[in-house]
Design a protein that fits this description.
- This protein is of the alpha/beta class.
- The protein contains eight helices and eleven strands.
- Helix content is about 40%, strand content about 20%.
- The strands form three sheets. Strands 3, 4, 5, 6, 9, 10 and 11 form a seven-stranded mixed sheet that branches. Strands 1-2 form a two-stranded antiparallel ribbon.
- α1 (about 5-15) packs across α2 and α1 crosses α4 (about 60-85).
- The longest helix is centred in the N-terminal third of the chain and has 28 residues, at about 60-85.
- One of its GO terms (molecular function) is DNA-binding transcription factor activity.
- One of its GO terms (cellular component) is cytosol.
- It comes from Paenibacillus hemerocallicola.
């Protein structure tokens, strides 16, 4: 059993897709398949269920993944700490964000004006299996994870109802969410934070949203609202500056529609000096950001 095999195994386990894993690792798919097969031969059991369409961890694989991640985390922490002690340039900060994509570029730009040598590896998805593969995660709170994590809130924002500017309700100053029960909704894809919040708030009000468009791209959602194709629940701060003149944001009187965005990190993972710098900067940045909006 080789270290490289274990690293490849973790990547395949997180993607559950051989082609995407090979692309991330920058090796050929046949070479990756041979490496995984060799690892399975070494441990004496199959770690994945395979069909012509997918590859998926089985019970042996999930158990093995948990232990391999713990072992590699210890090795990774040791290497990171030694680099910090020697004052060597840090590896890129692995930053995952599942919310606030509209404000992330400005946050990163402001930080790198102060720390231009610090670089980032960005991703927008959290793996389905295993330990989170990030140094820091910006997401909606509370965050549920099987790993030991710590969190710090960054901001709490209102959720408005976004409607086309020529909508019959566009001249209203506020609305009760139940009044939108008959509307056609536009939303992010199922599994996203905002989609889950949309469905939860509508159910709380007594109806299921009639979702006619779903997308994994927030700009598409905003564009479809402006084109008169439906309405959407819309975060006031992290999306607010991107609404455009063709849409209107209506405050919701009831129920209380808010969400809290926070930063999450794995307490079992070594936090480098550069990661700590960015974490502290992000907290100050969002504090100033929300103060300016008051």
């Amino acid at each position: 059993m080789e270290l490289l095999q274990l690293k490849y195994f973790i990547t395949v386990a997180r993607h559950e897709h051989m082609t995407r894993a090979a692309e991330q690792l920058r090796i050929s798919q046949p070479a990756l398949s041979r490496t995984i097969a060799s690892l399975e031969q070494s441990v004496g059991v199959q770690l994945f269920e395979r069909t012509s369409k997918y590859i998926k961890l089985n019970a042996h694989g999930r158990s093995f993944l948990k232990n391999v991640e713990q072992a590699l985390t210890i090795l990774d922490n040791a290497e990171r700490e030694l680099r910090d002690l020697e004052g060597e340039p840090a590896e890129p900060i692995s930053l995952t964000f599942t919310v606030a994509s509209y404000v992330i570029p400005a946050l990163l730009s402001a930080f790198r004006k102060k720390h231009p040598r610090i670089t980032f590896r960005l991703q927008q998805n959290v793996p389905s299996y295993g330990q989170p593969d990030f140094d820091l995660l910006i997401t909606s709170l509370p965050y549920q994870s099987s790993s030991e994590t710590a969190t710090v809130p960054l901001l709490t924002e209102d959720i408005f109802l976004a409607i086309p500017c020529d909508h019959p309700l566009a001249k209203r100053t506020s609305i009760r969410l139940e009044e939108a029960a008959g509307e056609e909704f536009i939303s992010l894809r199922r599994g996203s934070n905002l989609r889950e919040l949309t469905e939860h708030l509508c159910r709380l009000t007594g109806f299921a949203p009639n979702i006619v468009f779903e997308s994994d791209n927030p700009s598409i959602v905003r564009g479809l609202i402006g084109e008169g194709q439906g309405v959407a629940l819309f975060p006031a701060v992290t999306w607010g500056g991107s609404i455009g003149s063709s849409s209107v944001l209506l405050p919701i009187e009831e129920p209380v529609c808010k969400r809290t965005i926070g930063m999450v990190w794995n307490t079992n993972r070594y936090v480098s000096r550069s990661t700590e710098l960015f974490k502290e900067f992000a907290v100050r940045y969002f504090n100033n950001f929300t103060s300016e909006l008051r």
